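Bit of a strange request maybe. I'm writing a small parser for structure token strings and I need a real example to test against, not something I typed by hand. Could someone generate the tokens for this chain?
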Amino acid sequence: YGSLNTFLFDGQRARDDDEEAPIVLPELQYSFIGEPDERGAFFSIDAGVLNILREEGQDSRRVSLHGQWEMPYAGEMGDLYRIKAGLSGDLYWGNDVDKVGEDVTPGPGVNTQDGFAGRLFPQVAVEWRYPWVSYQEDFAQTLEPIIQVVASPEGFNDGDIPNEDSRDVEFDDSNLFSLNRFPGEDRVSSGSRVDYAVRWTAESPDFGWGEVFFGQSFRFLGGSDFEAGSGLEDDLSDFVGRVAFEPDPTFRTRYRFRLDKDSLKGRRHDFSASIGPPAYTFTTQYTLATLDETGSGPEDSEEIRLGFSTQINEFWSAGVTYLRDLDEDETRSYGGQIRYHDECFDLRLRAEREFFNDRDLKPSDTILFEVVFKHLGGVSS
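Reply from user aminoacidic:
Good idea to test on real output. This should exercise your parser:
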């Protein structure tokens, strides 16, 4: 535990002069995690300032502050609890913000608005786990049911609030128990729900370590704020899970999936593998996403990511990545990174060229230099 300060200044412009990308300047982020008290409870704070400017289209400014109190608790029978209570406040000032709702008048130039918008959003959650552990001579396994109940008021995603960072939702095993399933801060997971899953792990000197995870979510209060095809548009979500296997530290594999709740048809498959010691590590990741039965939602996509990293010495490391769209048979991005890391500093220099062209995403070049002072914070530009 300790404090963490991160400040990010980012500006981006498309390489094609005819396609203007939004200018993000500045983006400031601050995070703090306090020391736990005698019961193990602690506070955390996340704050941010964001300013996005466009030559055409909406401009938006956001000031956000999120505070959360969290307390773990262990029962007498080995049952584990985690209680969370959070409050988020967001203030927006926008120009030419797209209107949302049934009263929107068709026609160019009449579906936008200017002005301020705000939101104060409370949320509480209780998580329960009960790990059953079995030890044998050279084999240990754990079976762990997990249940989380999340309660919050309905709504709070008004059309007056610009949506810059919460458009593309990827529901999977990593955010099943997240309080907010949206990737950004402009949209919140309102309403009340229960999340549940089963996790099994096993470890042995002979075969290494393995894991199986399978879960789902049920929303019992509030409507859906998610698009069709996301896996969260209905009260009962799709199934999500993962299977991981690590026979030794130099070979790691993981398969993640999302299954349709009605037909059990695969909606998303993600297979990744890492091979080699730190001196030369090769990685690959294959992702396949398909439409739902109605044909709505995001388009089918198939891509593969390749990577190589090397630990040059105790302090220096480097790596390169390459992403290709197999469905369109074209390169999406490639780049590299050099890193210096010691007990006091973490310095990173990353360069990347992207070829995405969708909404505000335009082909662009990025050079990012990041400086992190451990236990104090960081600055990146």
